[in-house]
Design brief:
Helix 8 (about 165-185) packs across helix 9 (about 190-210). Strands 3-2-1-4-5-6-7-8 form an eight-stranded mixed β-sheet, sandwiched between helices. It has two domains: about 5-155, 3-Layer(aba) Sandwich (Rossmann fold), CATH 3.40.50.720; about 165-255, ProC C-terminal domain-like fold. The chain is about 50% helix and about 15% strand. The protein is α/β, with parallel strands linked by helices and about 260 residues long. The protein binds 1,4-dihydronicotinamide adenine dinucleotide (NAI) and (2S)-3,4-dihydro-2H-pyrrole-2-carboxylic acid (A1CAB). It is found in: Cytoplasm.
């Protein structure tokens, strides 16, 4: 049987959460400031309102998906109606301790990514005062987004910097791959599909074989062949340190975002 769910803050990620849960058979009410911008949610059968108190009050589980700077005001508004309820926050940087300071709910801190839209999110979550049935319910809900793992809360900012923000990094790389293809004369649609399928296929191969990325790279590099020339250029462009610095910068930003609450 479906669970009654409220998604408070149905913007980009809250909207994706609402639709994934609705399509998994749950009853979903989503709230946001500008309900006129939520027609795609209504088309999917999600009820949309501006009334946070009513939505949260009538729900069994509440997802919180507003920006960090809005958490204090929104939790202040719904604190009495979520008392003792399961509240899953996907807000970057805001700790369980801060959430509990704002309301007496059973909080879960989760970090999905935008691939919820394709049901291929990587979602990490942490929590410290849920019983076994509640953890089972949380995992059942989060698994509708894609893969889900429980981690210690100390890792949540790093998860945010790696996989929460990760789709943005991957699209920068993908766009560069497509442009590379255009530069050497491929038609646009072929270049795009070649780049996307190569990314998908490589990720799938690594998942299925559990091989280390370096091992797969060795399989591709034929001595004196083409790939080593391409890899040489990537290394000269310092792609590894650029990606590591991106994860580091986003993680550090997540650590300071809580100051906005
Ligand atoms: N965009 C992403 O890929 C991800 C975002 N997040 C987190 O999700 C949160 C939202 O991010 P986005 O969806 O990107 O931002 P967004 O700006 O698209 O969505 C925020 C939504 O909150 C609504 N809102 C503002 N004040 C409200 C209020 N008082 N009551 C109800 N709704 C209110 C706005 O109308 C808007 O629809 C952030 O805390 C972010 O850290 C987490 C994982 C991934
Ligand atoms: O950019 C942000 O702050 C959010 C958190 C992770 C992805 N988007």
């Amino acid at each position: 049987m479906g669970t009654r769910i409220a998604v408070v803050g149905a913007g980009t990620i809250g909207g994706a959460i609402a639709v994934a849960l609705k399509e998994a058979g749950h009853e979903v009410v989503a709230t946001r400031r500008n309900v006129e911008k939520a027609s795609w949610l209504k088309e999917k059968g999600v009820t949309v309102t501006r009334d946070n108190r009513k939505a949260a009050g009538e729900a069994d589980v509440v997802f919180l998906a507003v920006k960090p700077g809005k958490v204090g005001a929104v939790l202040g508004e719904i604190a009495d109606v979520v008392e003792g309820k399961l509240v899953i926050s996907v807000v970057a940087g805001v700790s369980l301790k801060e959430l509990k300071r704002l309301a007496s709910a059973k909080f879960v801190r989760a970090m999905p990514n935008i691939a919820i839209l394709a049901r291929e999110s990587f979602t990490a979550y942490s929590t410290d005062d849920l019983d076994g049935d509640e953890v089972e319910l949380v995992e059942r809900l989060l698994r509708t987004f894609g893969a889900c793992v429980r981690v210690e809360e100390e890792h949540m900012d790093a998860i945010t910097g790696l996989s929460g923000s990760g789709p943005a990094y991957v699209t920068v790389f993908l766009e560069a791959m497509v442009y590379g293809g255009l530069r050497v004369g491929l038609p646009r649609d072929v270049a795009k599909l070649a780049a996307l399928q190569t990314l998908l296929g490589t990720a799938k191969l690594l998942m299925e074989t559990e091989a280390h990325p370096a091992e797969v790279r060795e399989w591709v590099i034929t001595p004196e062949g083409t790939t080593i020339d391409g890899v040489f250029e990537l290394e000269e462009g310092k792609i590894r340190t650029a990606v590591m610095k991106a994860v580091d910068a986003a993680t550090k930003k997540s650590r300071i975002l809580s100051k906005k609450v």
